[in-house]
Specification:
351 residues; alpha/beta; Rossmann fold; 2 domains; seven-stranded mixed sheet; two-stranded parallel ribbon; 14 helices; 11 strands
Length: 351
């Protein structure tokens, strides 16, 4: 996701060079590539919040990923986002749940890995033989017995827009889990799975429910022709089916809980969606130190709500905030010609 944003922004900056001679110097000053990446050798044993995790006796959670490897009829890759699977996967394990992985077609689905989005949990997943084996042999949804699951979690990624809506196995699983008191969760494009789903009494799942997902603004910022490529945007589709769409700030954590329905706006909502699902299942989530990315999101939220002074205070309280994410939001602000915001966010990134 972050690499995609940067590619869009850099293209915009190149086009804008004829309008502002100082843009090149500004872009250089952001120094995006100087920030140290996480250790790609991270393993599950390195994740502090997993240490002392209870045995997986609280039940099972089904994580569903897309089987749509490409945008239909094109060579443009779709698939699912690793970060939206790995972070939730380990959160569920840390809280005493076993996790199975399924997809509409079963087998090995197309995984999207963006090096610039990767954290310790994401590298740990790639280095986790058991997790990779589950993913490589994902369960075909039409063979899943929904009665075995306390919750179902729909992973995002562009592919979800193509093979989640209208999938009869998804509708069956969601209906059973919800009607038997379980929890439904989804993040980013994952809520596309909820489109067209009716509960056992015939009531549309989305009708009157507070819900979120990847917003029109986020989609169109990255892909100007998104309406044509997808046919409809997720925000519009959820609202059209009676959902009360809750739109948060661009590329910041926004998780919405409506009873036993938990949805998150974008990849930066993954941790909070998974932990909100644990709460909805009746448990306090295991203690976990906020990642540098999460700390950066809190600084950005402080800036959005209280301006530069509030953000500086938050930055001092959160010294491990991910500089790369702060710089990326500075770049987003500059691309939108919010020069004052870009300047303040850049200063926050550099301490």
């Amino acid at each position: 996701m972050r690499r995609w944003i940067r590619r869009v922004l850099l293209g915009g900056f190149i086009a804008a060079m004829t309008l502002a001679a100082g843009i090149g110097l500004y872009l250089h000053s952001l120094d995006l590539d100087s920030q140290p990446p996480p250790d790609p050798r991270s393993s599950a044993a390195d994740l502090a919040f997993l240490r002392g995790a209870p045995p997986p006796t609280r039940g099972r959670i089904l994580a569903v990923v897309s089987s749509a490897a490409y945008f239909p009829g094109t060579a443009k890759r779709a698939g699912f986002e690793l970060t939206e699977l790995s972070r939730a996967y380990y959160t569920f394990l840390a809280n005493g749940y076993a996790v199975d992985i399924a997809s509409p077609l079963g087998g090995t689905p197309q995984m999207r890995v963006d090096d610039e989005d990767m954290g310790a949990a994401d590298h740990a997943f790639l280095n986790d033989a058991q997790a990779r084996a589950k993913l490589a042999a994902s369960l075909p949804l039409d063979q899943v017995d929904a009665s075995g699951y306390a919750a179902v979690y729909f992973v995002g990624g562009k592919g979800a827009m193509f093979d989640f809506p209208g999938d009869t196995a998804i509708a069956r699983i969601v209906r059973h889990v919800h009607d038997t008191g379980g929890v439904i969760g989804a993040v980013c494009h994952g809520p596309a799975a909820l489109l067209g789903v009716a509960l056992g009494d015939g009531t549309p799942l989305l009708r009157g429910r507070r819900v979120t997902g990847f917003t029109n603004a986020e989609e169109l910022f990255l892909m100007e022709d998104a309406r044509q490529r997808f046919g409809t945007l997720l925000q519009d589709a959820l609202a059209a089916q009676g959902g009360h769409f809750v739109e948060g700030a661009l590329y910041l954590d926004n998780t919405v809980v409506d009873g036993r329905l938990v949805t998150g706006q974008n990849p930066w909502s993954t941790w909070s969606v998974a932990e909100a699902m644990v709460r909805a299942l009746g448990h306090a989530p295991a203690a976990r130190e906020a990642t540098g990315e999460e700390q950066a999101v809190r600084v950005l939220e402080a800036y959005r709500r209280g301006g530069a002074a509030a953000a500086r205070a938050a930055r001092q309280a959160l010294p491990a905030a991910d500089k790369r994410l702060l710089l990326m939001h500075a770049l987003v602000a500059a691309m939108q010609r919010r020069w004052r915001d870009a300047w303040h966010l850049q200063r926050l990134a550099h301490g």
